[in-house]
Write a structure and sequence with these properties.
The chain folds into 2 domains: 88 residues; 235 residues, 2-Layer Sandwich (BirA Bifunctional Protein, domain 2), CATH 3.30.930. The termini are far apart. By secondary structure, it is α+β, with helices and mostly antiparallel strands. The chain is built from 12 helices and 10 strands. Strands 1, 4, 5, 6, 7, 8, 9 and 10 form an 8-stranded mixed β-sheet that branches. A two-stranded antiparallel ribbon has the order 2-3. Helix 1 runs parallel beside helix 4, helix 3 packs antiparallel against helix 4 and helix 5 crosses helix 11. The structure holds phenylalanine (PHE). The site of phenylalanine (PHE) has 12 residues, from strand 7, strand 9 and strand 10.
Length: 359
């Protein structure tokens, strides 16, 4: 019985002195584990006199329970202390904003391209791209603009220096060469849009030597002018986020389409303020038409079998209209204040379901 008392004061003292949860766990193993000292007492029962065994067994069990209970109690205390310490160390400043706003802004050009791609993407168009530096064939000849054609002057082309064979590469004057590249490399049905940079030697309030276009091309066996009109009218409603945008198609000339047209959207200019969608005025926003049979032939497509439409739109122009940006040249001045004002939050990707442009 003396053993029991000695062990009791030894282990209860040790438990009280344990400084942390790890030390306490070590104590538990040393006292109550399979080879622990308190557990070891049970094994001595066999050698004890028979008449004492019952009382001894009860005393050993009581000791075991008491040490176990002390360990549990100490464990709870130490756990609370550890939590208190953690809480004291980790202070939360509830006055901080939830998440700092990202500093950077998307340029309105990028935003507008994303919006246009989202709209046509939902109609089943795929994005295609081509090089900024083009071969004369893709930029002109294949588009039914032969050498000496006046349209070449119209476009104020930037030419690269002559090559050995006398030919000259050009900075593409429109995104239309990607029509040719796509028809030459892909079988119809074709449904693509082509956002990209274009270049013309021109610089004033409404022209910059580099600007952006989005080209559209649809080729299959039955596509007609009605599809062209419906597709572009739908685009305008989606892009300007208005339930109705009046559109009209005026006959116009582009060598690579027949018939060719320019599309205008309804607007009002009352009081000097431009408003899209309502009113009795019109504003030109893009060129379009049915792909010319000669263009199809240049791409090895038989015009008796295939037909389709194409359109080309200025990105800066539609960005200015939608976001009320008055001067084209400011797009390329890299002025941070301008970008903070007209730019967009980079994480708000435009989509038709979540909304095209953040308010
Ligand atoms: N490429 C023409 C331009 O730059 C636009 C256009 C594209 C017109 C496709 C008709 C069809 O002005």
């Amino acid at each position: 019985m003396n053993d029991v008392e000695t062990l009791k004061s030894k282990w209860l003292g040790a438990v009280r002195a344990a400084g942390d949860l790890a030390a306490l766990e070590n104590l538990r193993v040393e006292a109550l584990g399979k080879k622990g000292e308190v557990s070891g007492l049970m094994k001595t029962l066999g050698s004890a006199p028979a008449e004492e065994r019952k009382a001894l067994g009860a005393a050993f069990n009581a000791l075991k329970d008491e040490v176990a209970a002390a360990i549990e109690a100490r464990k709870a205390d130490l756990g609370d202390a550890a939590l208190d310490q953690k809480l004291a160390a980790e202070r939360l400043d509830v006055t901080l904003p939830a998440r700092p706003e990202p500093e950077g802004r998307l340029h309105p050009i990028s935003q507008t391209i994303d919006e246009v791609v989202a709209i046509f993407g939902a109609m089943g168009f795929k994005v295609a791209e081509g090089p900024d530096i083009e071969d004369d064939f893709y930029n002109f000849t294949a588009l039914n603009i032969p050498p000496e054609h006046p349209a070449r002057q119209m476009m104020d082309t930037f030419y690269l220096p002559e090559r050995q064979d006398g030919s000259r590469l050009v900075l593409r004057t429109h995104t239309s060469p990607v029509q040719i590249r796509t028809m030459l490399s892909q079988k119809p049905p074709i449904r693509i849009i082509v956002p990209g940079r274009t270049y013309r030697s021109d610089h004033d309030m409404t022209h910059t030597p580099m600007f952006h276009q989005v080209e559209g091309l649809v080729i299959d066996k039955t596509t007609h002018m009605g599809h062209l009109k419906g597709c572009l009218a739908d685009f305008c409603r989606a892009y300007f986020e208005l339930p109705d945008v009046p559109v009209r198609f005026r006959p116009s000339f582009f060598p690579f389409v027949e018939p060719g047209a320019e599309m205008d959207i309804g607007c009002s200019r009352k009081g000097g303020e431009l408003k899209i969608g309502a009113g009795d005025d019109w504003l030109e926003i893009l060129g379009c038409g049915m792909v010319h049979p000669k263009v199809l032939r240049h791409c090895n497509l038989d015009p008796a079998e295939y037909q389709g439409f194409a359109f080309g739109m200025g990105i800066e122009r539609v960005a200015m209209l939608k976001y009320g940006i008055p001067d084209l040249r400011t797009f390329y001045e890299a002025d941070l204040r301008w970008l903070r004002h007209y730019g967009f939050l980079p994480l708000e990707a435009p989509s038709l379901v979540r909304g095209l442009s953040p308010s």
